[in-house]
Amino acid sequence: MSHHIVEVQNLSYTYADGTKAVDGISFLIHHGESVAVVGANGAGKSTLLLHLNGYLTPQKGKVRIGDFPLTKKTIKDIRKTVGMVFQNSDDQLFMPTVYDDVAFGPLNLGLPAEEVEQRVLEALSRTNSEHLKDRPPYKLSGGEKRAVAIATVLAMSPDILVMDEPTSNLDPRARRSLIDLLSGFHHTKIIATHDLDMVLDLCERTIVILDGKIMADGPTLEIFQNTDLLVTCHLEKPLRMQPCPVLKPKVLK
Amino acid sequence: MAKIDTAFFDLSKLEEMANNDTVIHRIDPRIKVLVASMFVICVVSFHKYTISAILPFGLFLIIVMGLAEIPAFFLLKKIVLVSPFAIMVGIFNPLFDQQPIMVLGAITITGGWVSFVSILLRFGLCVGAVLVLIASTGFNTICLAMVKLGMPKIFAVQLLMLYRYIFVLIEEGLRMYQAMTLRTFHGRAIAMKTYMHLAGQLLLRTLDRAQRIHLAMLCRGFDGNIRIRQSLRMARLDIFFLAACFAILLLMRCYNIPAMFGRLITGIT
């Protein structure tokens, strides 16, 4: 089925100040795949993600989401298909209460009131945050905020989830429950992150980028075993794949 | 600084209050907007030396506030917070307007002082009325009501964005101020130049953040139309409320009720 495919072809983007953030990136993501995009700070991950929901339109190259090529005309459809979870939940939550925030998307889709309510409650229950629905978002804890931010996206029932650093600023337990939550989703997932241990849990495929270019694209385990590649790209093996530093201090180099 | 911090942060408490359910909250937002505007027009249109005739408006506001279950102290704090603007407007009146109006024993009260008090009173009432309106309706709903009453949509969106931007601006500003105070020692005055950099930084940062929030709105299908959960419905009770409020407000505007009461009780004409 050609549905829910993310196709990026030779994409380049240069910011107004001359920074070449994305430089000729191409990849193809199939339905139901879970893909990690990893790379150093400033490697171009965020810029790449901004193309996937049409916030930036490609200066060069092509982006294709599902059946639509990304153009000004198809942006609305694309935004319905691609749900974006921001790095900073505070940017994503802007309504006075959690309920209003989750309802914002469905209301904008023009759904009738009962449907909106149903969607909101469903999204909140899927992220285990029904009890927060009358609280103001800015008073929630980091983990709760992230859960609600994901609920706001789920309420739009997107086919593809794009996430920028979903585990940043979370305590270990909140991180674990987020990973459990995400592993239960059957959406196509694209996750930009530095949390390589999470990648091991969630993504079978990894794309490594450096200076706006793809350095590697393949099965996660294979890529994480390539120490040289990781070092060039300012990365380290996930902790789980490193030898135990207490038992074998000499092996670590 | 912590004080300003909490005072502003309280602003969003207004929005929380808007989710309460009282007699006032249930009234159609369009009616509330109309009554609030009428209130402001009446209060503002008094003669500059008027004080006593304005007082009943305070009573009106207090009653509405009570019905809407808005804590008075909270509202008072908000009014005091913005009062410097009104004080700036009126502060020179006592200097320029030296015309005596009243003599109480050894003290002569000049027209300037009377008009200064009048300005503060009006200011307090008007800001109070708007705050009560927001606390009993919610900002989004007010904007929607104004659109329904004929305001161009673009103004409503501007207002909404402005309202969101305030919070972003305050948050970023406080963070920068904190960072600056942590590296300023011995209570040394901060050079004007630093402030200029700070202001510029603040603008750029908040623009960035506002852009991200706007992006978040776009991602969830925002297209410039305001949509709220409840649908607006005008009931007979709403019309009655509107008529009653207008009648009361006009009555208070046309007759000096405290003076009439005074005459009634003292019998002096």
From TrEMBL, chain A:
<keyword id="KW-1278">Translocase</keyword>
<dbReference type="InterPro" id="IPR027417">
    <property type="entry name" value="P-loop_NTPase"/>
</dbReference>
<dbReference type="InterPro" id="IPR003593">
    <property type="entry name" value="AAA+_ATPase"/>
</dbReference>
<keyword id="KW-0813">Transport</keyword>
<keyword id="KW-1003">Cell membrane</keyword>
<dbReference type="GO" id="GO:0005524">
    <property type="term" value="F:ATP binding"/>
</dbReference>
<keyword id="KW-0547">Nucleotide-binding</keyword>
<dbReference type="InterPro" id="IPR005876">
    <property type="entry name" value="Co_trans_ATP-bd"/>
</dbReference>
<comment type="similarity">
    <text>Belongs to the ABC transporter superfamily.</text>
</comment>
<dbReference type="InterPro" id="IPR015856">
    <property type="entry name" value="ABC_transpr_CbiO/EcfA_su"/>
</dbReference>
<protein>
    <recommendedName>
        <fullName>ABC transporter ATP-binding protein</fullName>
    </recommendedName>
</protein>
<dbReference type="InterPro" id="IPR017871">
    <property type="entry name" value="ABC_transporter-like_CS"/>
</dbReference>
<dbReference type="InterPro" id="IPR050095">
    <property type="entry name" value="ECF_ABC_transporter_ATP-bd"/>
</dbReference>
<keyword id="KW-0067">ATP-binding</keyword>
<feature type="domain" description="ABC transporter">
    <location>
        <begin position="6"/>
        <end position="236"/>
    </location>
</feature>
<dbReference type="GO" id="GO:0006824">
    <property type="term" value="P:cobalt ion transport"/>
</dbReference>
<dbReference type="GO" id="GO:0043190">
    <property type="term" value="C:ATP-binding cassette (ABC) transporter complex"/>
</dbReference>
<dbReference type="Pfam" id="PF00005">
    <property type="entry name" value="ABC_tran"/>
</dbReference>
<keyword id="KW-0472">Membrane</keyword>
<dbReference type="GO" id="GO:0042626">
    <property type="term" value="F:ATPase-coupled transmembrane transporter activity"/>
</dbReference>
<dbReference type="GO" id="GO:0016887">
    <property type="term" value="F:ATP hydrolysis activity"/>
</dbReference>
<dbReference type="InterPro" id="IPR003439">
    <property type="entry name" value="ABC_transporter-like_ATP-bd"/>
</dbReference>
UniProtKB/TrEMBL annotation, chain B:
<feature type="transmembrane region" description="Helical">
    <location>
        <begin position="128"/>
        <end position="147"/>
    </location>
</feature>
<dbReference type="Pfam" id="PF02361">
    <property type="entry name" value="CbiQ"/>
</dbReference>
<dbReference type="GO" id="GO:0043190">
    <property type="term" value="C:ATP-binding cassette (ABC) transporter complex"/>
</dbReference>
<feature type="transmembrane region" description="Helical">
    <location>
        <begin position="53"/>
        <end position="72"/>
    </location>
</feature>
<keyword id="KW-1133">Transmembrane helix</keyword>
<dbReference type="InterPro" id="IPR051611">
    <property type="entry name" value="ECF_transporter_component"/>
</dbReference>
<dbReference type="InterPro" id="IPR012809">
    <property type="entry name" value="ECF_CbiQ"/>
</dbReference>
<dbReference type="InterPro" id="IPR003339">
    <property type="entry name" value="ABC/ECF_trnsptr_transmembrane"/>
</dbReference>
<keyword id="KW-0812">Transmembrane</keyword>
<feature type="transmembrane region" description="Helical">
    <location>
        <begin position="102"/>
        <end position="121"/>
    </location>
</feature>
<dbReference type="GO" id="GO:0006824">
    <property type="term" value="P:cobalt ion transport"/>
</dbReference>
<protein>
    <submittedName>
        <fullName>Cobalt/nickel transport system permease protein</fullName>
    </submittedName>
</protein>
<keyword id="KW-1003">Cell membrane</keyword>
<feature type="transmembrane region" description="Helical">
    <location>
        <begin position="79"/>
        <end position="96"/>
    </location>
</feature>
<keyword id="KW-0472">Membrane</keyword>
<feature type="transmembrane region" description="Helical">
    <location>
        <begin position="239"/>
        <end position="261"/>
    </location>
</feature>
